[in-house]
Write a structure and sequence with these properties.
Elements (H helix, E strand, L loop, with lengths): L2 E3 L2 E3 L6 E6 L2 E6 L14 H6 L20 H30 L1 H6 L3 H4 L7 H14 L1 H11 L1 H17 L7 H15 L2 H7 L7 H23 L2 H11 L3 H26 L22 H11 L15 H8 L5
Antiparallel strand pairs: 1-2, 3-4
GO molecular function, one term: transmembrane transporter activity
Keywords: Membrane, Transmembrane, Transmembrane helix, Transport
Subcellular location: Membrane
Length: 329
């Protein structure tokens, strides 16, 4: 017996794995035709009114509480999201670690002597970088919710890569300090922004598993950056006795890689699951004609997202409402 809504009967959610006894063994088979639509507040007309999406919700044109789909369809969509969204995000996450490891790379190329400093001054500069990084966290997230992570994340990458490439002409420890502080400010908030973006496409239990990919990729990128001895050797040979120039060149090269990724992110990162159609991606969209599944699977998993939009203009009324709210008794 299915759920009843507006005079029609809707099929119930089914587990994708079916069990059957065969002697003492239990055989399990995957049923791709089982209904994957989870029960939700939208199945109840009374609660559905409370969580009805607002007019500013970007996926409203695909919202359909009566939509049903199978596990086979959902898993096919998840594989597409992994391919088109998650893989590219992991590459961007790796670019963050590559640029952050530039300082360790520079230590092996005699950069500190050229800047008139030594390792005793290095640790305070690391603290200032971390402080700049932390201070930029909240403002960066504010900007991300204002313009959208699909625009702010590429902008961050382009800006900090430009500063990273500018390290090629550093002279003096003060300019080095300013450069590291700028990179920290521009990279601040990047991690939560990157985590926010895939939440538009994945359900919470799917996203929690894929967050492990980020930290794995970061560690792999750190290993690659530290083990890039071949690049260091070739660069030192090219620059001969100018080890400082070799160190700056490696930093600029990694910055150039990040710059190219940031520019490509402007056209490869869609605004949302129902806005993937683009001249640079696919004119028909990545998930067409099942964008309805993309829009409804996430909102059924977390109905509270119906009250939010990926972009909004900052104003002072929100903070006023929070401070003037009547305390709970």
């Amino acid at each position: 017996m299915g759920l009843t809504r507006s005079g029609m009967t809707l099929p119930r959610w089914e587990h994708p794995v079916t069990s059957g006894n065969s002697g003492s063994n239990v055989r399990k088979s995957y049923n791709s035709e089982a209904i994957a639509t989870w029960p939700s507040v939208f199945d109840n007309p009374d609660t559905a009114k409370e969580y009805q999406p607002g007019a500013d919700w970007q996926n409203l044109h695909r919202f359909d509480p009566s939509a049903r789909w199978t596990w086979g369809e959902e898993h096919q969509l998840i594989r597409k999201i992994d391919l088109w969204i998650m893989v590219f995000i992991c590459f961007m996450f790796a670019a963050l670690e590559l640029d952050r490891s530039n300082l360790q790379q520079a230590l092996t190329d005699n950069v500190l002597n050229d800047l008139g400093t030594n390792t005793n001054d290095l640790q305070p500069r690391k603290y200032r970088f971390c402080l700049s990084f932390l201070c930029a966290e909240l403002p960066s997230q504010r900007v991300s919710t204002w313009v959208g992570p699909d625009r702010w994340i590429p902008t961050q990458m382009v800006l900090w890569s430009a500063v990273a490439m500018g390290q090629y002409g550093l002279q003096g420890k003060n300019t080095f300090l300013v450069c590291r502080a700028l990179i920290g400010i521009l990279q601040g908030g990047f991690i939560p922004d990157v985590i926010l973006y895939p939440s538009y496409f994945y359900k919470h239990q799917e996203l929690s598993l894929r967050l492990g990919f980020f930290w794995t990729v970061m560690n792999i990128a750190d290993i690659i950056a530290r083990a890039s001895w071949l690049l260091d050797y070739c660069t030192c040979v090219a620059f001969k006795d100018d080890q400082t120039g070799a160190g700056y060149f490696c930093s600029s090269l990694k910055g150039l890689i990040t710059l190219l990724m940031g520019l490509s992110a402007y056209v490869l990162m869609p605004h949302g699951p129902c806005q993937t159609a683009n001249w640079s991606r696919d004119k028909s969209g990545w998930f067409s004609p099942r964008e309805t599944v993309m829009a409804n699977r996430v909102i059924r998993d977390d109905p509270n997202t119906t009250g939010t939009n990926e972009r909004w203009l900052p104003c002072g009324t929100e903070s006023t409402d929070l401070t003037s709210e009547t305390p709970m008794e």
